[in-house]
Write a structure and sequence with these properties.
Chitinase A, domain 3, 2 domains, 1 helix, about 150 residues, Thrombin, subunit H, four-stranded antiparallel β-sheet, five-stranded antiparallel β-sheet, elongated, mainly beta, about 40% strand
Length: about 150
Amino acid sequence: MSELTIGPDTQVTLHFAIELADGALVDSTFNKTPATFVVGDGNLLPGFEQALFGLKMGDEERLQIKPELGFGQPNPDNIQRMPLSGFDPEADLSPGMMMSFADANGSELPGVIDRIEGEQVYVDFNHPLAGRDLYFKVSILAVNPAPEKLQ
């Protein structure tokens, strides 16, 4: 009997690290509890899942994830112009500064100050990893059939 490989209808337990091209670490489970997910459950972006297809227990890989399969390309429409008067006058605004904003539903939404021009502040609401090549280091600990879906 052949070993089960990662694909649809599998549950995977793994350690992972996400790194930038320069080696900067974004996230890792290697010194924590491993991650477990069912392929297609939404816990991993589809591009990360697809990169794992065909791997089996015991495999260790470093996989390149292009922006289109990761967090996408930056969308210029996600840079919003806001009046400087709408910000706390005590805030020391500067490009690169991350701030929390409320979206239309009142949920927290992170944004990064892109630039300040006169009385206008441009805030970038793109995901911070948009447009970046990522490296997905994985160590596959287990691959099992997915548990039956609850009816």
